[in-house]
Amino acid sequence: MITLIVVLISLLVLVKSADVFVDQASSLAKKLKVNDFIIGFTVVAFGTSLPELVSTVFSAIDGHNQLVMSNVIGSNITNLCLIFGIIAVFNDYKIRRRDIDINIPINFAAMMVFWAFSAWSGFVLNWAFGISLILIFLILILLSKDYNHFSHVSNRVYATFRPWLLIGSLILLVFSGKICIEETILLAKQLKIAETILGYFILSIGTSLPELVTTWIAVKRKDGELGVGNILGSNLFNLLFALGVSSFIRPVVVTGFRTDLLFLTMATLAVYVFAILGKKYSFSRREGAGLLFIYLLFVVFQVIRVN
User: Fold this and answer.
1) Which of 9, 10, 18 is nearest to 211 (CA)?
2) What is the C-alpha radius of gyration for the chain, rounded to an integer number of angstroms?
3) 125 phi and psi, to 5 degrees?
4) pLDDT tens for residues 15-63?
5) Domain of residue 37, CATH code
6) How far is Cα 112 from Cα 109, in angstroms, rounded to an integer?
7) What b/e sequence results for 98-115 when a residue is b if at least 16 CB atoms lie within 10 Å of its CB, and e otherwise?
8) Whether the model pTM is above 0.70
9) What is the C-alpha separation between 75 and 267, in angstroms, rounded?
10) pLDDT tens, residue by residue, 136-188
């Protein structure tokens, strides 16, 4: 029980310190007269994915490939099915045509590229494939820059820049990520359960909290396209950038996760289909229930596989 509490507290500190770090980094960039688009396109756009990146990197350093893969796949399925599903059940929100024409297909294309690279490498991604994933990530972002939802940051109110907060949040970000991974590994050993279960249902949900909060607030402010862009951008970051960086530390073994990747591919396709079928390109309770059902199937599959 104590270990579980430590894991949850370190997760909360990880998420909160990432939020403070992004605010202070954005404030510093503004102070240095960096334009709003660049701030949004880099710091803000990727800020919600910092917890996934930190936890994935520390998992790779500790040699726990199961946590690396389950955290990324679990976070992306959580983003697409659980977060979109919960928000759609409580709030109808519109999806812009640009998402259907550009942003969702780009996410699906990223999945196909990842499948191709995995098959080509024998489902073991080394640093060379990692560099390729990161380059493809940058190319896809540049190709979609005219449709980037985070270009709407000109009205953003920046926090007051405080150097001690920037440095302190970065230190907390690193240490909480390290503690979180170490305690998660310990918890798996104590409970005698697979690390993937903790990766899918504790790490992935915990590190997806920034996406949930950002998307919920955006939808409540009638800015659903910002929320959709946040989720889609985060998933691209996790799949291509976070796994690409992890491959520099240790080869990422994909072999045992092909079925889980298939689930993620189906979830991405389902979001696209529901976006088209939704009345006037909107996510309603019906689409939300469908996404939650897919997430439930994923949970049931993981429980059956472990048993």
Assistant:
1) 18
2) 18
3) -90, 115
4) 788 778 777 877 777 777 765 545 555 565 566 677 788 888 888 988 8
5) 1.20.1420.30
6) 5
7) bbeebbbebbeebbebbb
8) yes
9) 12
10) 988 887 776 655 444 444 445 556 878 888 888 878 877 887 887 788 788 87
**What is the separation of C-alpha 203 from the centre of its chain, rounded to a whole number of angstroms?**
11
- CA 29 remoteness from chain centre: 24
Kind plus residue range of the DSSP H or E element containing 282: strand 282-283
Residue 96, sorted as left (phi over 0), alpha (psi -120 to 50) or beta, turns out to be: beta
- Residue pair 71/199 in contact by the 8 Å Cβ criterion: yes
> Is the distance from CB of 268 to CB of 103 less than 8 angstroms?
no
- Residues 149, 229 contacting (CB under 8 angstroms): yes
Question: Domain tally for the chain?
Answer: 1
In sequence order, what are the beta bridge partners of 283? 93
Of 2-11, 48-57, 110-119, 154-163, the poorest mean pLDDT is in 154-163
Domain that holds residue 259: 2-306
